[in-house]
Q: What sequence folds into this?
């Protein structure tokens, strides 16, 4: 069957078997960060985003992605590299096998949760297994990375011209509402 | 892993229902459980184009489409407010966010699995299952009855949670995070009457009712429990008592 998938921003048309998993589709299209750690939905290593939401690609048929957008680590290189540095600095990267799926889910969490508590972070990432680190280094890396993001946002906010732009933006939103 | 010969993205419920009348064909939910089985599927019937992925809140009910994911169920604001977190609590320990973005309410209810957390919760609520049976005919089956029905060739289209004022609290116990529950318990109260649904017996959940919490626990502990590699029947019986009491206390505190 023919499917059309927007993989990392590029539309791809392919002829696939109806039972092909999204995991194998991604790998066939050179997204080798997507790996099979278990295929029983337990490890989180195969995490990709489907229309911006993290899913287990070992649990989704490629046919389901027809007409939809799929993002892998290859499509998020800048952000992945940035968080990856925090992870490495805290010793969260040992054998490194779990990293691609873990990073995909951390980046998804950042988009979904504002100022998550430790419990919320642990719950969001519970489906990503790491057999080396014991997760303490992961938690340190996440906190430091989130803090650095917050500080960067605050700095942006303090630059006078940005502040003016932001105020103007808020004002225009209010006016729009009024209309 | 199953093999699939043909993929049908159904354009209407009637088309899906017709295809589902032939046994080697199967409806796809989120694929979570189906993928773990083996065998040959002639036609996999995809319901994702039928608009069944929404939760509708009316004055009388929450209507949860079959293709609503467990994560949508978990994060829906209306359900969160009405049931004070019980819905979220019932699914938040299932594997991980990425899995809950795949697994559906339709597949979870249809499966009628013994370990099912959402089924345990729904069994303690005033809930009916909407089944499409061809020729534009739908029936509503009370959840307790549905639990004991043999799977037929209907299409599960939605789960209705009726707003009767019944309140619920949910408790589960796992040997380790993301594992199947060793014990799942939902306690609900309407006026002065309690209901406790007890899942992971380890077979399918059952419900008991009583006017007093002590009676409720006694009745729940008298249900048949079995051993499996996760826990013994004796341990499950003890956990039933502890978790029902905790859930009932939570209801008291509200
Ligand atoms: C590793 C793992 C751990 C799990 N842990 C838990 C847990 O701790 N607690 C828990 O409650 N659950 C758990 N589950 C079960 C999971 O939450 C889902 O209930 C399960 O995957 C079924 O949902 P699905 O949408 O994936 O359905 P599928 O696997 O796609 O389908 C299941 C069955 O239902 C049929 N079906 C699906 N939708 C319909 C429909 N609309 N009409 C008619 N028939 C239909 C299918 O043909 C199939 O026979 C776990 C599953 C896995 C794989
Ligand atoms: S390979 Fe998908 S969860 Fe392990
Ligand atoms: S670093 Fe080895 S599995 Fe996570």
A:
């Amino acid at each position: 069957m023919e499917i059309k998938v927007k993989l990392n921003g590029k539309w791809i048309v392919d002829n696939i078997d109806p039972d092909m998993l999204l995991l194998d589709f991604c790998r066939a299209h050179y997204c080798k960060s997507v790996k099979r750690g278990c295929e029983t939905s337990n490890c989180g290593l195969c995490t990709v985003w489907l229309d911006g939401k993290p899913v287990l690609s070992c649990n989704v048929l490629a046919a389901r992605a027809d007409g939809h957008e799929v993002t892998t680590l290859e499509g998020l290189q800048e952000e992945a590299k940035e968080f990856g540095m925090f992870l490495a600095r805290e010793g969260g990267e040992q054998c490194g096998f779990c990293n691609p799926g873990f990073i995909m889910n951390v980046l998804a969490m950042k988009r979904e949760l504002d100022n998550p508590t430790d419990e919320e972070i642990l719950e969001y990432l519970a489906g990503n297994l790491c057999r080396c680190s014991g997760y303490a280094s992961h938690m340190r890396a996440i906190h430091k990375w989130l803090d650095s993001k917050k500080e960067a946002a605050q700095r942006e906010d303090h630059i006078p011209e940005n502040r003016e732009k932001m105020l103007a933006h808020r004002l225009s939103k209010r006016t729009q509402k009024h209309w | 892993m199953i093999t699939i010969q043909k993929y049908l993205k159904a354009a209407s419920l009637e088309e899906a229902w017709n295809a589902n009348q032939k046994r080697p064909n199967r409806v796809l939910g989120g694929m979570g459980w189906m993928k773990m089985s083996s065998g040959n599927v002639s036609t996999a019937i995809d319901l994702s184009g039928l608009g069944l992925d929404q939760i509708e809140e009316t004055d009388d009910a929450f209507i949860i489409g079959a293709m609503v994911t467990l994560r949508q169920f978990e994060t829906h604001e209306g359900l969160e407010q009405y049931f004070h977190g019980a819905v979220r609590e019932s699914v938040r320990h299932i594997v991980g966010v990425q899995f809950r973005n795949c697994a559906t309410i339709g597949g979870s209810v249809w499966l009628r699995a013994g370990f099912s957390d959402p089924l345990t919760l729904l069994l303690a609520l005033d809930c009916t299952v909407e089944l499409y049976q061809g020729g534009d005919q739908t029936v509503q089956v009370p959840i307790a009855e549905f639990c004991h029905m043999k799977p037929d060739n209907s299409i599960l289209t939605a789960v209705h949670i009726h707003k009767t004022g019944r309140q619920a609290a949910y408790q589960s116990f796992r040997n380790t995070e993301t594992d199947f529950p060793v014990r799942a318990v939902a306690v609900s109260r309407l006026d002065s009457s309690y209901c406790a649904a007890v899942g992971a017996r380890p077979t399918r959940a059952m419900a008991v009712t009583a006017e007093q919490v002590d009676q409720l626990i006694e009745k729940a502990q008298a249900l048949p429990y079995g051993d499996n590699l996760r826990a013994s029947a004796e341990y499950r019986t003890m956990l039933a008592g502890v978790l029902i009491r905790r859930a009932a206390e939570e209801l008291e505190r509200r």
The pocket of FE2/S2 (inorganic) cluster (ligand 2) is lined by residues A 36-39, 41-46, 56, 58 (CB under 6 Å). Helices of chain A lie at 22-28, 77-89, 99-112, 118-124, 136-158, 160-178.
